[in-house]
């Protein structure tokens, strides 16, 4: 069985994230890492591989040169190999274009099951799994907190606010997993050393037969019109309660605008 795990290299949420001059996310002046939510996808792929014979786990990412760091993390966790789609023409590609590139790469690599996180920690749209399933023409089972494969079926549990659902889909299929699916393992020293010897293929748009006019900032379906720095925090209002605290608080709230 072939499992492809889609992972993303994202700016560190603890850093000073900002937009570049062209209003795309600035990925050069801030440290990046494997999206935390994608670590759960890698973990579930590895658990499935541990339960099945002759299973190969491939980590796939689309991004600039530094995106290889996300692949190295996935390989050190236990993935067998990695594919990096890198091309200058991809700069500014939105979720529609990214799903096209991922789908082409997945089809070229060959797959039985595609696993992704529930969303990326930068864009946080959460629609890539559904777009991939549509482009690949296969069923999807998304937002799973439990996943397994048996008898040519992928099965899982989706937890809602009031109830849980049991889902199943015949392979090939696309699934996404939540941060409740199981704690991701830490790479061991042995895993980190082994990752250095694992194959990493690099593909560009021509390798995937994708025209430059299908991707990139100028051809994106969505765009950021404007952005401004977050206002600096100001000192709060201190209410000294000498019997009139409630009235002071009510008066303060009455003067605020809430959206």
UniProtKB/TrEMBL annotation:
GO MF entry, a single one: electron transfer activity
Domain Electron transfer flavoprotein alpha/beta-subunit N-terminal: 22-212
Pfam name, any one: ETF
GO cellular component: cytosol
Gene3D superfamilies: HUPs
Cofactor (UniProt): FAD
The keyword Electron transport is annotated on this UniProt entry: yes
Record key words, sorted: Electron transport, Transport
Similarity annotation: Belongs to the ETF beta-subunit/FixA family.
Protein task: The electron transfer flavoprotein serves as a specific electron acceptor for other dehydrogenases. It transfers the electrons to the main respiratory chain via ETF-ubiquinone oxidoreductase (ETF dehydrogenase).
PANTHER family referenced in this protein's UniProt entry, alphabetically: ELECTRON TRANSFER FLAVOPROTEIN BETA-SUBUNIT, ELECTRON TRANSFER FLAVOPROTEIN SUBUNIT BETA
Subunit annotation: Heterodimer of an alpha and a beta subunit.
Annotated protein name in UniProt: Electron transfer flavoprotein subunit beta
